[in-house]
Structure formats: structure tokens, C-alpha cells
Amino acid sequence: MKVMAQMSMVMNLDKCIGCHTCSVTCKQAWTNRSGVEYVWFNNVETRPGVGYPRTYEDQEKWRGGWTLNKRGRLKLRDGGRLHKLSRIFSNPKLPKIHDYYEPWTYDYDMLLNSPSGEHTPVATPKSLLTGKDMKISWSANWDDNLGGSLETMAQDPLLAKMSEEVKAEYEQAFMFYLPRICEHCLNPSCVASCPSGAMYKRQEDGIVLVDQDACRGWRMCISGCPYKKVYFNHRTGKAEKCTFCYPRIEVGLPTVCAETCVGRLRYIGLVLYDADAVAAAASVADEHELLDAQRNVLLDPNDPAVIEAARAGGIPEDWIESAQASPIWRLIREYKVALPLHPEYRTMPMVWYIPPLSPVVDVVTNSGNDGEDASVLFAAIDKLRIPIGYLAELFSAGDTAPVDLSLRKLAAMRSYMRGISLDNVRDESIAQAVGMSGAQMEEMYRLLAIAKYEERYVIPPAHAEQAHDLEEMGCSLDFEGGPGMGGAGPFGSSSGEPVPVAIENYNSLKSRQTADRPSTPGRVNLLNWDGNGKPRGLFPPEEEK
């Protein structure tokens, strides 16, 4: 047993209102610069819908994640080392800008400086890539504008797995929001896909990062990630991704998306896991068993044997204590209400979700019944198979049992706490009906409903004195003869000289080397200015010699 630590996140979808505050603050903090105009490390998707980039969940098309070969061993869905090296200069399995969206701004100068006239001036949309006028036809969450309408539902890869009858009934059910960031997987296929070894998983906290100096812009990591959460910066020629705000995590602060979340739906904490068990858990043949296999990889931080092994592995004492107080462990293993996103990709993601119960309650209430009554609510969950089936495609590889249990526990919690609030009665039968005790029910309620800041974010600060001993873990399957592609080699980090800008981008970037196209002559946006050149009006004129 090799005990390691992993920073993880759980999101309670019952609380997400789709305000996109997390997306905007992440954008401002990490991708508010040239080369990544189209990039959203954090995005909020409306379900049902096609997502961002479009239909990223269609692995028959994108070939991301892992699959099993004939011998039952893991292999990259898009091919192993030799297959990738054979087409290293041409990778067709990449989303195009059409699959993301063409980013734009507006010609605000028309509003600010237009002379008085008969008609109100209009700020024309202008492409951030070409600078030309454009017509807006798609965005990072166009589904949000359509509200789950038929226009995009037909393209939803998850609905394609369901019958026409299911689709027809589901259209009338509900929609919900799904925030997404990089999953910082225990078995990251992006790391295994990288020919240069630039993608790596930090040993101390499991955060997956990109070494910008080692990155050669092969873009195999983008095609290898089934969640499509790795992006290509066309200005630098490098891959970029969510960093889990590691500079904040290292000092004990939550990520920007969690800090600014209006609904307080995000939980961040440390979990301990057995690194030696990752490969076996990801190799389970039955996709419906992958959820339990991943749960079992996580170790009980209160187990004396685990604590002893953690100490022997160099995990600091305060990190062990943080793992014991972690909300992540309780939501995933103790209460079992949190579920991973697409476990069938076999990357073992470490951003988990609590499925939304709100639509179930709404349906019951709209039918004229008491939406919080336990018996009525349990019966409604049984009948609403279509939403559960859709959620199961998202969180449990199509197995409805884990989703059903999670929703039942959330429904039981509402009914149990309602009895305490209104009648001062603790009905243990409600808790027992879902395999919990009344005390556990109250603890779960506190965590999900009224937990304070320090209870939602249990983040131990980094130990700088240990930095020289830390190793880049890479991929759990990156060993001699394994499917991982990490490390140096003829196409690895030792080959060639670093190129600051990819050749294929040079012509498109040539006109942007002096400034980022100020919308008004004589003005420049200091938030977006790259520091190159001398935009007119920013500096005083030089004296003639």
C-alpha cells in the first residue's frame, strides 16, 4: 500500500443556479490574455445540451480516455505510443474553433465616440481572433440561452444512448447546470498521451499541471483528455489547463471558482488514496463496478494502518489531520452521495458531483402533493426514471442504482430535518430507510446546507521545506512497458530547442505583436496588453535628438 494525498473537489449540483460567476472569475484570473481568448478553464454547462466543446462526450469521435484491450489491460483509446508517434506531426482528433466558439468583443468605440444622430449607435461584434466583424452564432454555453431546447438536445451524446421514447418524455422533465473544471484524475490519460513528458501529476497533492518549458505543442494531451479540459495556446504554442489554483492551494486558500461561488456548492479537501491500487481499479471489466472500485481506492484517514503508512510515506502530520477533517471523504465514502463524472473513461476523476434533487421536488410539488414528504418523495424518485437515467449516464456509467441511492439520501435528509424543524421529531425510520442513522443525517445536513467556510474548505498549506524531495509522479501507468508516454526520448523533452511561438501561428499573430488591438485609437486595455510595443498614447512621446 502506497499512501498518497490528492486535492479533490465536490460540487453540489442542487445548489448551482447557473450564474457563471465561477467561470468569469476563473477567466479573469487565468485566461484573460492573448492566445486563450476561447478558453474557459471553468465553464458551466446546461444539461441536456452539447457542452463545451461541442459533443466532447462522444468518445467514438474524439477517442479520449482509456479502454481495455483483449487481455483486459488498459490502453489509451486513441492508440498507444507507436500509434501516436506515427502521426505526431498530424493529430486529427482535435476540436476546431467551431467546436469551441469564436470569441468576440464589441466595438465599444461606436458607443463611446459616435456623434449625435437620429439612430442609436450599435456596438458591432468583432472577432478576437481576426479583428473582423462577425455574427455571433455560438458560445461556451449556448445551451444556456436555449434552455435545453430541441435545437441542441438532439446533439447531446448522452441522449443518443437513450430511446426516442425516453427523449420525448425527458424533454418535459427539467434542466440543470453542470460546472466543469479539469478532473485532476488519479489515472490521467492526458499525462499518458504526452510525448514530451510535459504533462505531470504532482506527487504532493495530485494536481495535474503542464511544464511550459517541456511542452512542444504536440497537442496529444488535448485529444487524450476525454473531458477536453486541455487547451492549446496559439500564441505561445503550448498546452494549458486548469491548475486547481495551486498558488492559492499551497497557502491554504480555495480555488478562485470555489471562493467566488455564489451558491456555496463547492467543497475542497484532501483525501488519501492507495497509489498501488489505481491501475487495478481502473481496469475493472464491468463499467458499473468502476464507481465502487474508485471509492475503494480512497483510504480511511482514521484507520491506524493508513495513518502509519502515510507517515512512512512522508505525508506531514497536519495533512493527515486535514484528510481526517475533509468534507470530500465524508461525501464520497461515508455518505456516498457524491459521484464521479463519467467513470467509464477510466481516468478516475477527482472532481465529484452530488446529483440535483430539486427537479424531483418540483415535480412532486406541482402535482399538488407535499414535496418534502418522505414517502411521496421516495415514490416520485422511483417513477422519475428518465432523469435518473440521464444522470446515470453522467455519473455512474449508466447504472441507475448509485444515482437513485444518492437522491434518496438527499430526499430523506430533507424530510428528516423538516420533522425536526416543524415538529421537533427525529424520525429514525426515514434515516434507516436509506441506510443511515439520524446522527449521520444531521451531520450531512450541516455539511450540505449550513457548513461554514472552514468546513467546506479544508486545505492544508504546502510544506516548502520538502520541495527538494518531491517527484513528478506522471501517470500511474507510466512504467516500463506501460501504456504511458511520459519521459524523454527521441521525441521527448530532450529533442529540439524551445520555440516560443508555433510556426503555424506566426502569420496570424504577426499583426498582434505590438498591442492587443485597442478598440479606440490612442487607447489601450491595460488588462489585456501584453507589454510588447508602444501603443500610441500610452507613453509620452520621445524627444527628438
From TrEMBL:
InterPro entries: 4Fe4S_Fe-S-bd, Nitr_red_bet_C, Nitr_red_bet_C_sf, NO3_Rdtase_bsu
Start and end residues of each stretch annotated as Disordered: 484-545
A GO molecular-function annotation: metal ion binding
Xref: Pfam families: Fer4_11 (PF13247), Nitr_red_bet_C (PF14711)
Stretch forming the signal peptide: none
Keyword 4Fe-4S attached: yes
GO biological process: anaerobic respiration; nitrate metabolic process
Localization terms from the record: Cell envelope
Designated name of the protein: Nitrate reductase subunit beta
Keywords: 4Fe-4S, Electron transport, Iron, Iron-sulfur, Metal-binding, Repeat, Transport
Lineage start: Bacteria, Bacillati, Actinomycetota, Actinomycetes, Micrococcales
GO cellular component annotations of the record: cell envelope; membrane; nitrate reductase complex
Residue intervals of the 4Fe-4S ferredoxin-type domain: 7-35, 173-204, 206-235
Cofactor (UniProt): [4Fe-4S] cluster; [3Fe-4S] cluster
